[in-house]
Amino acid sequence: MTTSQTEQLGFKAHSDGDWENRAPVQTRSDRLKSANRSDFPSVTGREVNWKFTPIAKIAHLLDGELADGASALEVSDAAGVEVSSVPMESDLVGRAGLPEDQAAANAWGRLETAQRILVTSQERQTVVVKRTALTAAPTAAHTVIEAAAQANALVILENSGDANLTETVEIVVGDAANLTVVSIQEWNDGAVHLASHNATVGRDGNLQHIVVSLGGGVVRVNPSIHLDGQGANGEAYGAYFADAGQHLEHQVYIDHNAPHTRSRVAYKGALQGEGAHAVWIGDVLIRRVATGTDSYEENRNLTLTEGTRTDSIPNLEIETGDIEGAGHASTTGRFDEEHIFYLQSRGISEDEARKLVVRGFLFEVIQRIGNEEIEARLQAAIEDELQQSVLA
Description:
Layout: H1 3-8, H2 19-22, H3 55-58, H4 60-63, E1 67-68, E2 73-75, E3 81-87, H5 102-110, E4 113-119, E5 125-131, E6 139-147, E7 152-161, E8 164-173, E9 178-187, E10 192-201, E11 206-213, E12 218-227, E13 233-242, E14 247-256, E15 262-271, E16 277-286, E17 294-303, E18 309-318, E19 325-333, H6 337-344, H7 350-366, H8 372-387
Parallel strand pairs: 1-6, 4-6, 5-7, 6-8, 7-9, 8-10, 9-11, 10-12, 11-13, 12-14, 13-15, 14-16, 15-17, 16-18, 17-19
Antiparallel strand pairs: 2-5, 3-4
């Protein structure tokens, strides 16, 4: 057979072929996972998980030197709660998953120890973890939050002040444990914060993960929740308020990896001011083994002024047809004028009516925290945001 005949029969690879090696990874589950930052290619900003992020503002956290931020944590006392420092090479580290991006891998690789918070009490405990002692120096941190079997706790991560931080947070929920983890970002205006939260939930375990992002220049908090035990439940909620020039980003991943698991995702945001930018990406994977799954995710955004930008992308990947249900929704828009008209008809001014709508919109998420003091403080912070608003 001649060369020309071989080519005609299709035995020669096409010059535009080899797509198995050249095509970008499209699904969240297929992404590279590694604790070694050198395993990740350099970030260009064209990658699916970086394309909305202002790379120039966070490049120094991707592969540069980082200080150890462990000493900046202050953990409150509570019954049945143990706080310790463990080596990064310990078997207690990495149980919730490895980093999925270069920023998380850089944080992981720069540290020698992780801070571990272990909850064993079966009576509901509240643990407050404050981080206020950081500076503008590039910093890394790794925190392991573990709820033992049948443990019950609310863990609140409070972030405020200055920061130039990339961190990984591991969450391990034991069988039949009930854990709520709340991450609150009230950074100063110039702060940069990149956080990867990786969670694994055991049999009949329950995790409620709540993110509230209000302050900071660039904030990117990405929860990755793996429902690895039969009957596991994972709920991810978020509230954010982006002002002029502020970038708030949340990429949520729910991995149904066992039968009869359940998940709910609901993120709500408000934006005002020129250049305010919010990014939400929601990925849900229902694996072949996850029969009987019940899942739903949604993202709602209110744009309060001109000049804002919202990128909202829900994704749903289903590998089995034997499920209870799955769906997603995304909306971005201005106020519902019928709501405004109704409030005005009750004697409320237009500006105050619009503020009432925003308060109620975000409080639906905040009230899930279950701590009146924290909820009241966040409501006051949102009120301060609204006082500066020029609602149109």
